[in-house]
Automatic annotation (TrEMBL):
GO terms for molecular function: pre-mRNA 5'-splice site binding. SMART domains: HAT. It holds the Pfam family HAT_PRP39_C. It comes from Gossypium raimondii. It comes from the Eukaryota. This is Suppressor of forked domain-containing protein. Belongs to the PRP39 family. Its main location: nucleus. InterPro entries: HAT, HAT_PRP39_C, TPR-like_helical_dom_sf.
Length: 534
């Protein structure tokens, strides 16, 4: 409107440097502008007055173009040549911007999927869904792999508009800026996170303490921990552990012990504190691993038993801790605590009580004597084994096992061209499962290469071969109806009642094939029952 053509051309140049959805429209508008105005009106004052020292002379006597990035001012790439006409210079002027346009277009095609997945680019108190959070992480990974710090910073700033309430993105931003050497940007991002956007979340303050410790700001790290202890989340176990570990690294061992003792004293004043048992366990472990005083560590645990409510995590912790302490093992206080917890009238659930009893049995099998093991096993059997029914998971496992065997058997019939293939290839040990001498009676059947007639019923009966496991090379396994399908392998009665099955037509044996007396079926069972026309 003001006919500021040089500034308009600079704006177009800046637009064409950045990927966006309207690149084609802007580039066409720029070409229209370049075609309608002379080059002298399109160049900025800075371009026209560029000193000769900014120009790089080519070998052919021409002066190569000078490209000036226009991030701070309206400076544009400028071709300058000594003896060329205005038309040639204008062509070069447009060609430079066309190259910017093509690069931005190519880059836009790479990030289009990430941009499309951004459903909420603005801030809202409602949480983002998992797909959007994952998309931001993937987008940041891609931009960081490109290696352009300017683009990385811009994308992080965009991301932290929509994800301002998520500490992990602030932490990632700080670490990325630290890795790139931009400590000013890292400190700025950390200050915004801890003082404004996620200042009520302990995670960001714990990160700030570690970050400051690594960079030599020990008072700042202590201040971050104290802020969590006093205001953000008093009694937060992770903050206490990390603070104590930092003091140990600094050689302040007494200060580290004092942190645990102060936190335990505060938690004792709370009714039904859930943190106190694990705080005792962690304090005992810290004391032993740092100072090597096993007796002090045991005293802490034994003193805690009268102060805390027994729970599965606490008992697991003290049993495990006793395993790493040097001998002799102190089993007495563990046994009394386990007895109290697994009693039927205790507050723990049945599953937790049984788990603790099993863990204690394992501990005793490693460090106990025969009498203590027998006592614990008898108690475990009395409390838990008689009333334990077959769980649903075991039933489901049995059903899955059944269906797996049926599928294997069905595949064995469908994949082999010979229908008389024996089931023994899939179950080589099945012949030992016949009771009452059935497996010891070899049978001579016609060669499987001869044709045999199958009835439609075999498609269903074949599935029971996994349970019948006939010991001979029967081509058509059958299951007597008197035996339940859920019976275990080989759990067949010693004698079979006479069952009537439809007559089956089998191929006649070849001449010369005779059944020896040892191969004849038992007389108590008629041949017509199982062997069809034989």
């Amino acid at each position: 409107m003001h006919q500021e053509w040089s500034r308009l051309a600079a704006i177009y140049t800046r637009i064409l440097e950045n990927p966006n959805q309207q690149l084609d429209r802007y580039f066409n508008s720029f070409k229209d502008l370049a075609a309608s105005r002379p080059l002298s009106e399109l160049r900025t004052v800075e371009e026209a007055a560029a000193p000769a020292s900014d120009m790089v002379s080519g070998a052919d006597g021409q002066v190569n173009e000078v490209v000036v990035h226009s991030d701070a001012a309206e400076q544009t790439p400028k071709p300058i040549s000594a003896g060329s006409t205005d038309a040639e210079e204008l062509e070069k002027y447009v060609a430079i911007r066309e190259e910017l346009y093509k690069k931005a277009k190519e880059f836009n095609s790479k990030i289009l999927g990430f941009e499309t997945a951004i459903r909420r680019p603005y801030f809202h108190a409602r949480p983002l869904n998992v797909a959007e959070l994952e998309n931001w992480h993937n987008y940041l990974d891609f931009i960081e792999s490109e290696g352009d710090l300017n683009k990385v910073v811009k994308l992080y700033e965009r991301c932290l508009i929509a994800c301002a309430s998520y500490p992990e993105y602030w932490i990632r931003y700080v670490l990325c800026m630290e890795a790139s050497g931009s400590m000013d940007l890292a400190d700025n991002a950390l200050a915004r996170a801890t003082q404004v956007f996620v200042k009520r979340q302990p995670e960001i303050h714990l990160f700030a303490a570690r970050f400051k410790e690594q960079n030599g700001d020990i008072p700042g790290a202590r201040a971050a921990y104290q802020l969590v202890h006093n205001e953000i989340s008093p009694g937060f176990l992770e903050a206490i552990i990390k603070h104590a570990n930092m003091e140990r690294r600094l050689g302040k061992l007494e200060d580290a012990f004092s942190l645990y003792e102060q936190a335990i004293a505060i938690e004792k004043g709370k009714e039904h504190s859930q943190t106190l048992p694990m705080m005792y366990a962690q304090y005992s472990r810290f004391s032993y691993l740092v100072s090597g005083n096993a007796e002090k560590a045991r005293e802490i645990l034994i003193g805690a038993l009268d102060q805390v409510q027994l729970s599965k995590p606490f008992l697991e912790a003290i049993i495990y801790f006793e395993t790493i302490l040097p001998p002799p093992k102190q089993i007495g206080y563990l046994e009394s605590s386990v007895d109290k917890f697994i009693a039927p009238n205790s507050d723990g659930s049945a599953a937790d009580r049984e788990d603790v009893s099993s863990i204690f049995l394992e501990f005793l099998s490693l460090f106990g004597d025969a009498q203590s093991i027998k006592k614990a096993e008898d108690r475990h059997a009395k409390l838990f084994l008689p009333r334990r029914p077959m769980s649903d998971s075991r039933k489901r496992y049995a059903e899955d096992f059944l269906s797996s065997d049926k599928m294997k058997l069905a595949r064995s019939y469908s994949s082999d061209p010979s229908p008389g293939q024996s089931l023994m290839s899939a179950y080589p040990n099945a012949q030992n499962q016949w009771p009452a001498g059935y497996g010891a009676q070899p049978q001579t059947w016609p060669s499987t290469t001869q044709a045999q007639t199958w009835t439609p019923g075999y498609s269903q009966q074949a599935a029971y071969g996994a349970y019948s496991s006939y010991g001979s090379n029967y081509a058509t396994p059958q299951v007597p109806t008197s035996v339940p399908q859920s019976a275990g392998y080989g759990a067949y009665p010693t004698t079979y009642p006479v069952q009537t099955f439809p007559q089956q037509s089998f191929a006649v044996p070849t001449a010369g094939t005779m059944l020896t007396p040892a191969q004849q079926p038992a007389a108590a069972v008629p041949q017509t029952t199982y062997y069809g026309t034989y």
